[in-house]
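Protocol step 4 of 6.
Sequence for Divergent polysaccharide deacetylase (Lacimicrobium alkaliphilum) entered exactly as in the expression construct, tag removed. Do not edit the line below.
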Amino acid sequence: MTRLCLLLICLLSLPAGAGNIALIIDDMGYRKQDIDAFVLPAQVTFAILPHTPYSTAYAKKAATQNREVMLHMPMEALAGNKLGPGALTAAMDDRAIQAKLDAALTSVPHAIGLNNHMGSKLTQLTLPMQATMDFLRQQQLFFIDSRTTRYSKANKIATRFGVPNTHRQVFLDHFQNEKHMQAQFDRLIRIARKYRNAIGIAHPYPETLSFLQQSLPKLQEMGIQLIPVSVLMKEKALALRESSPDTSKVGSE
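Step 5 output, structure tokens:
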């Protein structure tokens, strides 16, 4: 029996009051200092920005730790934020979007899924999300919505395309101070206990890494299990398969 199957069995048979947390570190790849994040437990997933100075090197290093990697794909934001290299925009047609995704995936080897970097505009738009989910379905990748807008259509469209998907519940470090991060961490634990699973997103700030090094070892004492994101997405894939959506008829909403 594989390690993933064993973890999935544990996930499905939790005692009352227990829960699972999947933690994603976003924005990896721009800075040399991001390498400090590699001290975190291997269950923590790295979401790596494409075409950045360390994107390929960090993805390969993560693989040596058996650490899971996601493509952290820049997408157009409503506020007009500066987009990273290889970003997806509303002006692109399906072919351009999929070419950008393909190039980005090449720069982040070993990626098993995708989450959006920014994207408060693009994730609200049907056609760009359909092109994105069609690509992910072809590549057999999952999607996690960073939820930069409550109006996102991404999860709904991913489901229609048969792409395993979910969304994050908590951003841990919008403010990089211990009081704020502790409050957000406690909130993540409450969600995991109530709903069995929760996804948190953080960033490779020095303050965040220090906080996580102190806080993550305490999870087990609380009855909370830190799991690789693939374990949670395996459950999502099974649920999606059981619902048997007819992905041959996907189209505009």
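Step 6, annotate. The chain has one domain: 19-242.
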